[in-house]
Give the backbone structure.
Amino acid sequence: MGKIKVAIIGVGNCASSFVQGIHHYVELPEDEDVPGVMHTTIGEYRIEDIEVVAAFDIDENKVGHDLSEVIFTKPNNTLKFADVPHTGVTVERGMTHDGIGKYVSHLVKKSPHPTVDISGILKEREVDVVINYLPVGSEMATKWYVEQILDARCAMINCIPVFIAKEEYWRNRFEERGVPIVGDDIKSQLGATITHRVLTRLFEDRGVKILNTYQLNFGGNTDFLNLLERERTVSKRISKTAAVTSQMDDEIDPDNIHVGPSDHVPWLQDRKWCHIRLEGESFGGAPINMEVKLEVWDSPNSAGVVVDAVRCAKLAMDRNISGAILGPSAYFMKSPPTQYTDDVARDMVEAFIAGEG
């Protein structure tokens, strides 16, 4: 089937884990399981078939350097689990817009180079799939890049909570251009959102009425630093909250649920600590409460999911499927066009891979 040519927007921690992963998991036996991906082969595509051919950033310390160096350049601070050889892919100057929050401006200095012709590069390098890894809150920048992606007729994986696949206007634009999108806001392999969703569904399935619940997250990467800026957290809170409430049979009062980022703790680096509490009412009105603490390396936790999303997007292109891909979006993302329970969404992805959905 050949390679899947990928372009990356924003070469931060998530991009680092993704690039490390596609260089680490190569020449694997067909029956070998890889933690964090659904299958070693999806359709006819193996992990090693993903090839990054373009990358864009605005940081003066990253623009003009090889991708293999940039993924380990500060302020990136995620886990290093693979050596990445020289790729020959130079990180090029992207568009800034609202991509730099005020709390990271002392860490990220804009490159003096002009913005390159993004659409032209995507066309010239015959990019199949573009991954959006921009910082949370990059609303204007994301929509600007979407226009470039549509012009170049590429598929898109929207990993951040700027609503593109979820919005009818943008879904229609992708359908008109004949290309697919998987979005919005990546759901990690085993992160805060999937854990909270499953516990919420467990309470519902066992007949426990949920009275109150919260999810508090903090970490040490630039994502959490960005989220100190309250204006940039709005879409993130909406995305994470809706992902949880979608698993409830009855509506919950907004004052009785709190889901979102809480603080930035620099020494945690790319680790995230999550505290979840659910308070419920069982038979006879007896109280039942649950608390969970989850500790993860944030970026590797989502990289395998993106590997699967990229391969599903390429399958959609091969099959001339355009617009938002419902199954993969529901399973891989927090804010898809349509929410399903995770077991149903997984079955939808399996059916999609098999060509049945």
